[in-house]
Design a protein that fits this description.
alpha/beta; four-stranded mixed beta sheet; 17 strands; globular; binds pyridoxal-5'-phosphate
Amino acid sequence: MSITSIDKEFVSGTYGRFPVELVSGSGSLLTGSDGKQYIDLGSGIGVTAFGFRDEAWMGAVTAQLGKVQHTSNLYYTEPCALLAKALCEKTGMKKVFFGNSGAEANECAIKVARKYSAEKKGPDCYTIITLLNSFHGRTLTTLAATGQDHFHELFQPLTPGFVHVPANDIGALEQMLGSVKAAGIMLECVQGEGGVMPLTKEYVQVAASLAAQHDIPLIIDEVQTGNGRTGSLYAYMQFGIQPDIVSTAKGLGGGLPIGACLMSEKVQYVLGPGDHGSTYGGNPVCCAGALSVINRLDDEFLAQVKAKGEYVFDALNGAEGVEGVSGMGLMIGIKTRKPAREVVNACLEKGVLCLTAKDKVRLLPALNIPMEQLSAAVEIIREACK
Ligand SMILES: *Cc1c(COP(=O)(O)O)cnc(C)c1O
């Protein structure tokens, strides 16, 4: 029996997989079980920030594996403490809670916002305002936060206390703040799953000042946009705001599961002993890998991410069959004349792995993808779009 057919028989059918079994990788190249080589522009959905078998990342992870792989949160470990310190020093945040995924980082963010507001204004102040077309995760609470109805069908009742407003509509946000007892505002600076849609700077800044006026936390979901993806350490840094809570995951671990919820001065003491927890959270191997990722995202490196993003934008914007290019840094959405899935399948055939987001082709290459591979892949995408 082939791996494909074993998987089809025994793995829950929640994913529409491409007909490819991947067996190994190196840098931004992946090899299939049939020996075919691919240039990877998806990085496992923005996760393998430095590609495959990156020496520094593997060194950090294997060194920790050689010491202790898990301790539980009953004890201190160095990688967890040092990663939290690095994240705080680089963002100005004060405390970090570690979980294992983006959804878990958002669950923590929502709990912090609700407890802050319950203590300040009373337990009926629990409603979190999020945006239509957002994506915040697959747990029942983060699904409720997600502003896309098609994810909600047949999973009712979801966690109550979430309302959605259209992105970039300041009036709608003001109106909602006037009509619900809000506990927080939550948004992605660039909506990823929603089709790589950046919010306007003005909107994000107004949302931040409205949150401050109402004394409710502003939560920025940086699960996809964070950790260098958009050309700054976190995307909010390009919007001129300082959030109260930041959630992140995906690229943070470089390929191992980790999520983090960063808390500002305003909310740093909201969670106390017993308020939250996660058995795997702060796992020393994941934290050691994440620390090596975070420490490499300096200004010089981030400038290269931006330059590569601009290169892709210029090469595809206005190309035949391309109706528009959106995004920031190396988080790129391409609106194609042909259905996105058709373009992605043609790229796969020619040895380039791409993603989709809504009706767009989405690219999330490794942040250190070599220029030659990036330009070769972009050429194949241009052909596929025609
Ligand atoms: C992927 C994603 C999530 C969910 O992350 P998981 O690790 O799959 O739980 C949440 N928010 C955003 C913006 C994402 O892109």
